[in-house]
Each structure stands twice: as structure tokens, then as C-alpha cells.
Design a protein that fits this description.
Layout lengths: L1 H14 L12 H6 L4 H17 L5 H8 L1
């Protein structure tokens, strides 16, 4: 279970600018195995961006900055 969480954390930190938590050590084998989680992380990022665009109370300029 810890291995999967480590791989998901690596996938998130690889595909975004979010750094991994301080206590998480990424091992060499996690790099290749984490590619299986790239679609999952992409769906999560896409859902987050969709939610930002659906919020009507945010100004168009702020929405553009958040999406970029």
C-alpha cells in the first residue's frame, strides 16, 4: 500500500509543480511504475480545472490566471 501511495505522489510531483512531502522518499523503481498513475493524475488535474471554470463568482481574469 505504501508503494502505491509513493508512486501516486511521484506522479503528481512529476506532472505538476507540487513538490512531494518532506517525509516521502522516492525510490528508483517508483519512477517507471508511477507512469501507470499518469492518467489518474491527469483526470484529477482536469477535474480541478473544470471546477475552476464552472465557478461563476470568479472574474475572467482570475480564471485565466488559475488555468494557466
Amino acid at each position: 500500500m505504501k508503494r502505491f501511495i509513493r508512486q501516486i505522489i511521484f506522479a503528481v510531483s512529476f506532472l505538476t509543480i507540487i513538490p512531494p512531502p518532506a517525509g516521502v522518499r522516492i525510490k528508483t523503481g517508483d519512477t517507471g511504475k508511477s507512469t501507470a498513475f499518469f492518467p489518474l493524475v491527469g483526470i484529477i488535474i482536469g477535474a480541478f480545472l473544470l471546477l475552476i471554470t464552472l465557478i461563476q463568482k470568479i472574474s475572467p481574469m482570475t480564471t485565466s490566471v488559475l488555468l494557466t
